[in-house]
Amino acid sequence: MKQFLLKVSIIAVVSFVMTVLIDIAILRKVDNLSYYSHERNFSLAYYRLKALNDSNKIVIIGGSNGAFGINSRLLHEAFNLPVVNTCTHASIGLRMQFETYKDMLREGDIVILTPEYGGGKERLYGGYNLLRILSTHLPEAYRKITLRQWLNIYQFIGIHNLGSSVHKDIGEFDDPYSANAINEYGDLEWEREHKDSIHYYSLSGVMDGELIDYFKYIHDFTKSKGIKLAFLPPTFMRSNFNICAGQIDSLAYCLEANGVPLQSAPSNYSFDDSLYFDTPCHMTPEGAIIRTQTIIEDLHRLFSDKE
Amino acid sequence: MLFNSFEFLIFLPIVFLFYWFVFRRRWWRNLFVVVASYVFYSWWDWRFLILIALTSLFSFISGLLMERYEGQRKMQKAVSATNIIINLAILGIFKYYNFFVENLDALFRMMGFHLDWVSMNIILPVGISFYTFQALSYSIDVYQKKLPATHDIVEFFAYISFFPQLVAGPIERATNLLPQFQRNRQFDYVKAVDGCRQMLCGFFKKIVIAEFCGDIVNECWNQYQGLSGMSLFLLGVLFTIQIYCDFSGYSDIAIGCARLFGINLMRNFNYPYFSRSIPEFWRRWHISLTTWFRDYIYFPLGGSRCDKWKILRNVYIVWAISGLWHGASWHFVCWGLFHATLLAIYNIFGINTKYDHVVAYGKFLPSIKELLQMTLTFCLAVVGWIIFRAESMTQAIDYFAHMFTNPFISGGMRFGKATMWCMLFLMIEWVQRDKQHALQFTNTKPFNYRVVRWAIYLIIIGMSYVAYMERFYDNSPFIYFQF
């Protein structure tokens, strides 16, 4: 029996080491689809922020609702501050975004936080796109991942391996989702028209405790550093918003009850269906302008009051 | 709980350590087996524990009653029959109720009547077909005096619920498995090591080969109309490999796992795709089920010891039931009858009992005749599996129609690369065809070197790990779980 247990233990240890080495090899793989897509904004925003380290700026952090739904040029003109739109695919997770950029925030900066609706752990720790974005665009950001986050995202290693193999023949492309659509601010600027067949999203009205805690952490961090935080709702197509109004109210109430309320009513960021492109969160260029004007009004209200 | 899951990776070592180090006495060890097996089973749905417990209880009591009525054959027959009816009724309700209602409704509608029976949303308990047959085996064997009734309810429950073979076999006979629970087991190092190898072999077949083939089959099956004739055949070949690796892989894991606990389960697959005839194929495929049907249905009907027409009748009855066992749908019955027809043909030509030895034993290559025989048998098996995989008989017929009417090769031969990989796998199995499993090494070079064997194990573990992680979201259960 002892000999058996010893052999099994040795095989188990060697296998574990081997699987770790396999994981490391997989995490070094580049995914061409990600490389040539708008996900490249994750690293572009990082380097933009690095270049603006010594000056005040407006930083937008959120999901693709911010990439497709904000006209940063208008913000720049309204506040006379450089704007860095870091928004990208929401499945990168809020934690990864904030941890990557927070060291480059300074007193006097304005942070617009506009995460997607949805209260699960994936909103915080990231989903299947996180690994491909990091591996492809900013591998050094892996240092920001804690053990707890690894336990949540470990399951996506296989999908990243599969994706990088399947996408190996993909080259540069031109459409609203491509890297070529990223403008100097980080917005996605490409010809896009409203599509009739937009599938509705369904939402859960429950918010994960760790996600709430992280919102509180962002709130406390920005406060301690003298950074102005505007925690704004994401944009959401009106007809879908009406269906999910109960769940959205529930999420908003949850945040308020935990001391991190949204600083504008969700309904203010729900616009006519015709202003949306291909999902309930992605706007047309016209929609982005209207939404940005709403943001500007809210920023004036929030920060003029405080001043 | 699936074998290919992290939960099982945690479950197995814990159970192993407790089994050998904590519960050293036979009765306590058997009780622990029952508890562990019920935990394993409840991972799917705890409600179905009631069913397996009831099945076990009825069969146990039937054994005791038959012993009590020793000398009164009529009473013993009544007890055995009652137990069979109760267990088959449970199986019938959970597996065949909706099938029965739909077909009865269709029959009455043909006559112009409309039944108002309600189809129920019944979830099929995992493994019900397997453990029910195992319970029936005990009851029938006690009646036939092949073994005495057991008085120990714990060892009997352990026999029915033993977790490695609980949900997808092998369907164990009471004469083989129950006596092993009636004596204390000793740890056997050689058996345990070989058991681990067999489990590794099973995991590789399931996670790497079966899933690889399954991805292609699932993606392409419903678009078969647009494929060339050759591609349709190759798709059938891929499913043939998938179902073999899925099921034999599970059996390897079950048998290997049981050996870790000092239990020897019966062999369930014996390289069926190297069979030289369809009768030989069925002596090598799902051996536990085919021998169960042979011993408990075919032989009582008269078997082969009657005139030609009765033999044919017996064959068709057994295979119709076998088809129905595989699923509550007419195309499964048609699949069974397809094989019955093939067996009848082989029977007529008198080659049903030939070929009970390993093909080309001691040789590296088969003879031309053996190669042709294996190819024919393989192709016939592929035809059967296409019927099996189809969602209905209509789809199966349409599939064959397209196979023969679509251009033979158009737009390239799809699945050629995948089929080549599968053939490579079969070639490896060919080399090991006289062994219990593909990782049973002999003392020949280079496998007598430990570093070579361990390198092979690590390569298999690495490949299985990568394949498992890629399908983490879609961690599909074994095909035969639906039975």
Summarize the entry for a quick read:
Helices cover 49% and strands 7% of the residues of chain A. Chain A is an alpha/beta fold.
CATH architecture of chain A: 3-Layer(aba) Sandwich
Helix-and-strand structural type of chain B = mainly alpha
In this structure, how is the largest beta sheet of chain A organized?
4 strands, parallel
Task: Please tally the helical runs of chain A, counting DSSP H or I stretches of 4 or more residues.
Answer: 14
Mean pLDDT score of chain B: 88
Overall average pLDDT of chain A: 92
Poorly predicted tracts of residues of chain A: none
Number of distinct beta strands of chain B: 0
Query: Can you tell me the CATH class of chain A?
Result: Alpha Beta
What would you note in describing this structure?
The complex is a heterodimer of chains A (307) and B (483). With 307 residues, chain A is α/β, with parallel strands linked by helices. Chain A is built from 14 helices and six strands. Chain A has one domain: Rossmann fold, CATH 3.40.50. Chain A is globular, with a radius of gyration of 21 Å. The termini of chain A are far apart. Chain B folds into two domains: 180 residues, no CATH class; 215 residues, no CATH class. Chain B starts with 5 loop residues before the first helix and ends in a 13-residue tail after the last helix. The model of chain B has no long low-confidence stretch (mean pLDDT 88). Classes of the chains: A alpha/beta (307), B mainly alpha (483). At the A-B interface, helix 1 and helix 10 of A face helix 8 and helix 17 of B.
